[in-house]
Amino acid sequence: xxxxxxxxxxxxxxxxxxxAFAKAVGIASIITDPDGCPITEPSNxxxxxxxxxxxxxxxLVNCMKSDAEIGHxxxxxxxxxxxxxxxxxxxxxxxxxxxxxxxNWLIGQVRDEAQSTEKMMKxxxxxxxxxxxxxxxxxxxxxxxxxxxxxxxxxxxxMANLMSRTAYQNMKQKELTEKLEQEIAERETxxxxxxKRERSEKYMIFSSGSEEYGINISKIQEVIETTHxxxxxxxxxxIKGVINLRxxxxxxxxxxxxxxxxxxxxTERICIIIIxxxxxxxxxxxxxIIGVSNVKGRDIENMPxxxxxxxTGCILGLAKSEGKLKLLxxxxxxxxxxxxxxxxxxTGKAA
Length: 351
Known about the structure:
Elements: H1 5-8, H2 11-25, E1 28-32, H3 47-52, H4 57-70, E2 79-82, E3 89-97, E4 100-110, H5 117-127, H6 131-140, H7 146-198, E5 200-208, E6 211-216, E7 220-225, E8 239-245, E9 248-254, H8 255-259, E10 271-277, E11 280-286, E12 288-296, E13 300-301, E14 315-321, E15 324-329, H9 337-350
Parallel strand pairs: 6-15, 9-11
Antiparallel strand pairs: 1-4, 2-3, 3-4, 5-6, 5-12, 7-10, 8-9, 10-11, 13-14, 14-15
């Protein structure tokens, strides 16, 4: 699995540990990713490294390269070597999660009496640092014997190994937790699907042509007899017009025209279903109302619809009921966004 140091450890707690260790032994410390990019904030960094060398473009690149090199995995002990940037003594130990290298714990920024001031000033000129500031900061760097620094590096190696074992345990715990969460989610999904399959909902069934259609009863406000519909100019053929229902202007859709079916003569059975679509009332003219049916989720099948102007986005599925197939509609998506906007504007004009 893809894993990172911050996935396995509390960075605030690690920062406290790093700060305390750096202060106790008098060295600088930081934890980086395997490429040398910092994970934690630097602890006890000296002015030379933090405020001068790393503030130059060349110096920063060299520091990150050095951090990556010093943090290379070494099962036999810490890597101890002069920094590839400023030349101060550095050391590092890798932190692994199983076989995955997730971080480097680095310490250093100390010098011994053998290191040359002249050589350091040459490096200052190479990276473009201010020589006077560089020299002053160099003189402030902690001096430590190599033997003492090696002892600290060995302690670091032991702590990094302990963190590697902890990281592995945390990784396995994380894998187990994610697996359990996935299994629980899958069981809940299956349970919800089963509940949905067994749950019945009421649909008003109506006919248009030789087919039967259904709209969830919760979306229907009322059914009215065909009344005078006022035509609205410059609208598609399927927009029949608007009606005045108790002082409210409501647009009316010709269901047959929307499906591309031929028009029929006006009969007593033709009526208008007033529906609520996304909070707005709309009328639909249908050939006749058949009745109300209870439809269970397990009786609804998904099926692509072709050969009509009814887009599949407004279809919930095909229901098998009383030996017949009924096309169930998602009335909130009966019109696409452009059609709905146009209908709203035209209704506003008519009002």
